[in-house]
Design a protein that fits this description.
With 410 residues, the protein is an all-alpha fold. The protein is globular and about 65 Å long. It is a multi-pass membrane protein.
């Protein structure tokens, strides 16, 4: 069989283009959130409505992820990725040009629909052409880039918004995704041979998803980490509205507050990887969950005592973000150990959709009950944590709360 790469330079360019797609995806997620107050003023809308720009984007991503994963197994990675990137590109140009808030929400939904191809089929290209060990290293590299970008994006977006206005952030996203689209179109070859493809049958997809949804340990472990992660995203979505509009934090320094949450997430990811080697997966998960719960409890105490110090509030959110990052990858790994190899592809799509559905739902709830304080956000975090603890108790009772590390291959 002819090797996929003809030279080292070709291999490096392939890796760079795939990672560049993820950069475009994660930049569009939160680069514009620091400019929410300016966007509210431009579109003459309120706090509840402006957060539709996040929740509708996540909803589109959630829905398309369920389709693009199986579709890439049937029609190949390149065709699906180029289709998704084209949709993403259309949505990005729409966001950068529209003057209507209704159309802005629609274009954000379109961006989410297109991004589903990146999260479902993008990383699969690594596993198509590299060994499992090298693919794992590349996924780790991607996760590191994601953490760094999610920390930097709010600062960059805030600086751009102050200097040139909120719309320029969407010009930047449109430019990035256009470059990625043409790079895939002209420089990336198909990675999944026709003989390895599986027919796209609705009955098979539904049967696989039904099997996964009826698997309690798989669902419970994923619900725990998805709820935990969603709470952190709710923090980020509400931060500019609370800090700038209500606590009167200077716009010039706000980006640093928001970046600290994702910076803590990045550090927590690195610390978690280190702790797994020295303490094991179960202890690392417990340590991470401990930090997360302390952060949530601290935020709740500050909220209900009406302590509106930005530094104390951000310290609590940062602590929760650090703990979340250290623990969630372990819960995900546990969940994958309870399913067969033939369901792992569908499991990836379903897990991504579950995370996005929960995130968009929690953001909508937070927006609906938004009152300028951190109390609605804290209540949401408390309820989510309570559900997670209840699910963990059920897993513990069944002896499914952990998996021996030697049996986990991913």
């Amino acid at each position: 069989m002819k090797p996929y790469f003809q030279s080292k330079a070709q291999e490096l360019s392939f890796i760079g283009i795939v990672l560049f797609a993820f950069i475009a995806f994660y930049v569009e997620t939160d680069i514009y959130t620091p400019t929410f107050p300016a966007m509210m003023s431009y579109f003459a809308t309120n706090e509840q409505a402006i957060q539709l720009l996040i929740s509708m984007n996540f909803l589109g991503l959630c829905l398309s992820s369920l389709f693009f994963g199986p579709a890439s197994d049937a029609y190949g990675r390149k065709a699906i990725l180029c289709t998704g990137l084209f949709i993403f590109m259309l949505g990005s140009f729409g966001c950068s040009l529209t003057s209507s808030f209704a159309w802005m929400v629609f274009y954000r939904l379109l961006q989410g629909l297109g991004c589903g191809a990146i999260v479902s089929a993008g990383l699969a290209m690594f596993f198509d052409v590299f060994t499992a060990e090298k693919s794992a290293r590349l996924v780790a590299l991607c996760n590191g880039l994601v953490g760094g970008l999610m920390a930097l994006a709010p600062m960059i977006g805030n600086w751009i918004g102050l200097r040139w206005g909120w719309r320029v952030n969407f010009y930047l996203i449109a430019a990035l995704v256009t470059l990625v689209f043409f790079a895939y179109l002209f420089y990336i070859k198909e990675t999944l041979p026709k003989e390895k493809r599986t027919p796209l049958r609705v009955s098979t997809i539904c049967r696989n998803y039904a099997s996964l949804l009826s698997n309690f340990p798989f669902v419970a472990h994923n619900m725990i980490w998805c709820l935990t992660f969603s709470v952190i995203i709710v923090f980020i979505a509400n931060l500019s509205l609370i800090f700038i509009d209500y606590l009167q934090v200077d716009k010039k320094i706000f980006g640093y507050y928001q970046a600290s949450i994702m910076g803590a997430f990045f550090v927590g990811s690195l610390a978690g990887a280190r702790l797994i080697k020295t303490r094991g997966m179960f202890r690392t998960k417990m340590i991470g969950n401990g930090f997360y719960l302390v952060g949530i409890m601290s935020l709740s105490i500050l909220s209900f005592s009406h302590n509106e110090s930005p530094n104390w509030l951000i310290a609590s959110m940062t602590l929760a973000s650090f703990g979340c990052a250290a623990a969630i990858t372990i819960s995900f790994s546990y969940s994958m150990n309870f399913i067969g190899d033939n369901l792992k592809g569908s499991a990836m799509s379903l897990t991504q959709s579950l995370r996005l559905l929960l995130t968009s739902g929690l953001i909508w709830i937070a927006a609906h009950y938004f009152d300028g304080s951190t109390i609605p956000m804290s209540l949401l975090a408390i309820v989510s944590s309570g559900i997670s603890i209840s699910l963990y108790a059920c897993l513990y009772k069944r002896g499914m709360h952990f998996v021996r590390q030697t049996s986990i291959t991913a």
